[in-house]
Amino acid sequence: MTRAEEFEQLRPLLFAIAYRILGSVSEAEDAVQETWLGYQDYPAEPESARAFLSTVVTRTSINVLRSARVRRETYAGPWLPEPLLADPYQDPERSAELADSVSMAALLLLERLSPLERAVFVLREVFAFGFPEIASAVGRSESACRQLAVRARRHMDAGRPRFEADRREREQLADRFFEAFREGDLDALRELLAADVQMTSDSGGKAPQLPKPVVGVDNVARVLVAVAEPLARIGVVVDPRPVNGQPGAILRDRDDRPFNTLALDILDGQIQAIRIVINPDKLGHLGPVGDAWALSRAFNQARRPTSEK
């Protein structure tokens, strides 16, 4: 097998590692590409391509994360991970860990860890790497990696998101939510939202967004109802589909261009959080992105009484 063939076989795993460390599709893709370039130029033949490439992509991702965190300190408004519609890496024996670890809630929790803790946690808890492999990947001793893993697990367990065990029940609840949203049904939305539900949006200052997180069942339900009809008037389509392994949707303009994603956290039969990504820089991997500013102008026009138009 050629190096190119080996690399393509391992690409899904490498992307999955990088995305969980970085929370960014574009940065993960860049890390994987940099790993391939390094593999091409590596003079020796690694004993294990999987171990070698996992080490390179992990170290690359740690370096990228350190610089990304500096940029995030000046990020305009709330920061959310780039939405991922489908995880390219699948392992039936670890399907639950893989799905939960890619959720928006889990990725935000990982933001609390240091880059080294995050890398160790991802390699150990998500992909079941042994400590000798992890030590090689992060350039620390096995004992140091075990300590990093303990600290990371403690932080994650303290705030670990818990999702409904029955995926079908979550999907059915999400279907009811999007139907109530399309119809602007205030009472139906109230029934589906948790009392302390929180709705957050991430535009990075590059698109209209909520001025601040909206908290509480009545506030969130009213906002959703207020925007539903004007969005329908300007041809916006709600396209339900999984986002980061959880129920969600892509909102598309009348030209079928994505301009917004929603991810839902569902627990105990209610929606606990709604996370909206509208920053066009984070949506480019979904296809040509709609103009959120133009949509905002059309939306505001659609909200005006007929006599004012």
CATH topology of the largest domain: Butyryl-CoA Dehydrogenase, subunit A, domain 3
Quantity of strands, as a count: 6
Order of strands, widest sheet: 2-1-6-5-4-3
The average pLDDT value, as a whole number, equals 92
Q: Helix fraction?
A: 40-55%
Which class of the largest domain in CATH terms? Mainly Alpha
Shape: globular
Strand portion? 5-15%
Sheet with the most strands?
Answer: 6 strands, mixed
The number of helical segments is 12
Q: What's the domain count?
A: 2
Oligomer: single chain
Report what the structure shows:
The structure is a single chain. The protein has helices spanning 3-22, 25-41, 49-72, 95-101, 104-110, 115-126, 131-138, 142-159, 167-183, 186-192, 217-233, 292-303, and strands at 193-202, 214-215, 237-240, 248-252, 258-267, 270-277. Strands 2-1-6-5-4-3 form a six-stranded mixed β-sheet. The chain is α+β, with helices and mostly antiparallel strands and 309 residues long. The protein contains twelve helices and six strands. The N and C termini lie far apart (66 Å). Helices cover 54% and strands 13% of the residues. It is globular. It has two domains: 3-159, Butyryl-CoA Dehydrogenase, subunit A, domain 3 (Up-down Bundle); 167-308, Roll (Nuclear Transport Factor 2, Chain: A), CATH 3.10.450. Strand 4 and strand 5 form a beta hairpin. The mean pLDDT is 92. Residues 7-69 form the RNA polymerase sigma-70 region domain. Interacts transiently with the RNA polymerase catalytic core formed by RpoA, RpoB, RpoC and RpoZ (2 alpha, 1 beta, 1 beta' and 1 omega subunit) to form the RNA polymerase holoenzyme that can initiate transcription. Keywords: Sigma factor, Transcription, Transcription regulation. One of its GO terms (biological process) is DNA-templated transcription initiation. GO terms for molecular function: DNA binding; sigma factor activity.
